[in-house]
């Protein structure tokens, strides 16, 4: 079926008291010119009537996987409707996203129309959580949120404030205007990286000491994977050369798994001819054991010295052989951030260096958030305030798209 000119949004509504705000959200989305297809969970219909939403959106509100009993002729059509709805829409927005829906999405459960259609939905997903503060702070909910973020899901809110249950704290549904703005930002994002082939390195490397021990570092790979996912969503062909990480590979990205710095170097060099943008996010080991032992080293009472030798600097090698490529590096520093990042930009012939202070709690290597400064030749350093790594990824890619446009 051809797509209508107006962007199409599925508005998924979970069963929480904040569901009453979804009517206002639906109205704002329609006002912005979007086609809005409401999908309610059974519990949501306890808080808000489908009639309200169908009046606002001029659509039949979907509340069930199956046609009502006694309408056998409608059963087949409605049984595959979740696929049609998934494929015909541009954004899946869920507001309120309850703790239960977050858990179902994270686990890939498919017990009703919304969760089944979610599994078949190939586009961006925006979640606006709303729940009691304790439920939001529960490690299970936080783990589900972290998993969904790592898979590239977008979040708006929750806001902090007084909740319907009388508690104060995070858990309030973001304001409908803020949710509508976040939806617009995703829907209107152009395919500004179409035509680019972007190669990223991500994660740590592992340098063997012996067959069971390695030298590695705390890099989680989250920043590199977020960049890969966003670059792909913005139209780029993406090759991700990844050290060992505990993340699911982003969809539609070519993943090359490596362990050591030498393997990462070889993987990068074997593909460099195809690449228009190189982004070195990996925390590549600077040194490796000069002579890894063939057998497991035995424990002894005396001190053990391991001789280290330098690895090849992949970013510097790509910078030396730059051609028309755009080269982006990262600088994780514990002090003199701007000075060190500018020195690295110059030394490694990078167009852009993303500088971040490591050591701030929750940000940097292992956290889901980051706070960076963009360093370009001849431009003022541009600080990017602390935000989710997917949001930071988009800001970095904005700079990449801008630099590519200037190169052209
Ligand atoms: O000099 P430093 O290691 O701090 O530079 C960090 C930047 O260099 C990152 O972009 C990292 O991916 C890259 N790098 C590399 N190969 C190395 C060491 C660092 O590509 N062997």
What structural keywords apply?
alpha/beta; single chain; binds cytidine-5'-monophosphate; Rossmann fold; 15 helices
The CATH architecture term of the largest domain is 3-Layer(aba) Sandwich
Q: What proportion strand?
A: 15-25%
**Helical percent range?**
25-40%
Q: Residue-averaged pLDDT, rounded?
A: 90
Fill in the CATH topology of the largest domain: Rossmann fold
Structural class: alpha/beta
How many strands? 19
**Total domain count:** 2
Strand order of the largest sheet: 12-11-8-13-16-17-18-19
Shape: globular
Report the biggest beta sheet as strand number plus sense, adding barrel if it closes: 8 strands, mixed
What's the CATH C level of the largest domain?
Alpha Beta
Mind telling me the CATH superfamily name of the largest domain? CoaB-like
What does this structure look like?
The protein has 15 helices and 19 strands. The protein has 408 residues and is α/β, with parallel strands linked by helices. The protein has 2 domains: 180 residues, Rossmann fold (3-Layer(aba) Sandwich); 211 residues, Rossmann fold. An 8-stranded mixed beta sheet has the order 12-11-8-13-16-17-18-19, sandwiched between helices. It is globular, with a radius of gyration of 24 Å. The structure holds cytidine-5'-monophosphate.
Could you give the topology of this structure?
Layout: E1 8-13, H1 20-31, E2 35-40, H2 44-47, H3 50-57, H4 72-79, H5 81-88, E3 91-97, H6 99-107, H7 113-120, E4 125-129, H8 133-137, H9 139-150, E5 154-155, E6 159-162, E7 168-172, H10 176-188, E8 197-202, E9 207-208, E10 214-215, H11 222-233, E11 237-242, E12 254-257, H12 261-271, E13 277-280, E14 287-289, E15 308-310, H13 314-320, E16 326-333, H14 337-347, E17 352-357, E18 369-376, E19 382-388, H15 389-407
Parallel strand pairs: 1-2, 1-3, 3-4, 4-5, 8-11, 8-13, 11-12, 13-16, 16-17
Antiparallel strand pairs: 6-7, 9-10, 14-15, 17-18, 18-19
Helix pairs in contact: 1-3, 1-10, 5-7, 6-9, 11-15
Bound molecules: cytidine-5'-monophosphate (C5P).
């Amino acid at each position: 079926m051809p797509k209508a000119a107006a962007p199409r949004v599925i508005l998924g509504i979970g069963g929480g008291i904040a569901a009453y705000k979804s009517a206002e959200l639906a109205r704002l989305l329609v006002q912005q010119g979007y086609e809005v297809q409401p999908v309610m969970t059974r519990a949501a219909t306890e808080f808000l009537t489908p009639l309200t939403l169908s009046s606002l959106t001029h659509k039949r509100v979907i509340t069930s996987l199956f046609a009502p009993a006694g309408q056998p002729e409608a059963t087949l059509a409605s049984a595959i409707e979740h696929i049609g709805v998934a494929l015909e829409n541009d954004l899946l927005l869920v507001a309120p996203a309850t703790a239960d829906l977050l858990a179902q999405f994270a686990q890939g459960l498919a017990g009703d129309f919304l969760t089944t259609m979610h599994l078949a939905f190939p586009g961006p997903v925006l979640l606006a959580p709303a729940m009691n503060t304790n439920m939001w702070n529960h490690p299970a909910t936080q783990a589900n949120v972290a998993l969904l973020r790592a898979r590239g899901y977008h979040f708006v809110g929750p806001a902090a404030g007084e909740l319907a249950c009388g508690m104060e704290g995070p858990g309030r549904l973001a304001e409908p205007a803020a949710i509508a703005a976040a939806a617009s930002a995703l829907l209107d994002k152009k395919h500004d990286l179409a035509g680019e082939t972007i190669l990223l390195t991500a994660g740590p490397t592992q340098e063997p000491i012996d067959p069971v021990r390695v030298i590695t570092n705390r890099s989680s790979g989250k920043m590199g994977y977020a960049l890969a996912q966003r670059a792909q969503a913005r139209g780029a062909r993406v090759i991700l050369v990844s050290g060992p990480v505990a993340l699911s590979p982003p969809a539609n990205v070519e993943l090359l798994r490596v362990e050591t710095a030498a393997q990462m170097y070889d993987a990068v060099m074997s593909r460099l001819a195809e690449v228009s943008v190189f982004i070195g996010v990996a925390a590549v080991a600077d040194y490796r054991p000069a002579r890894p032992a063939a057998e497991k080293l035995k424990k002894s009472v005396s001190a053990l010295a391991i001789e280290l030798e330098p690895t090849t600097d992949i970013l510097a090698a790509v910078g030396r052989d730059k051609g028309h490529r755009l080269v982006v590096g990262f600088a994780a520093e514990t002090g003199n951030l701007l000075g060190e990042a500018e020195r690295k930009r110059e030394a490694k012939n990078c167009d852009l260096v993303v500088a971040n202070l490591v050591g701030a709690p929750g940000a940097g290597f292992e956290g889901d958030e980051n706070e960076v400064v963009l360093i370009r030749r001849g431009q003022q350093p541009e600080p990017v305030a602390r935000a989710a790594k997917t949001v930071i990824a988009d800001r970095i890619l904005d700079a990449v798209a801008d630099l590519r446009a200037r190169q052209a």
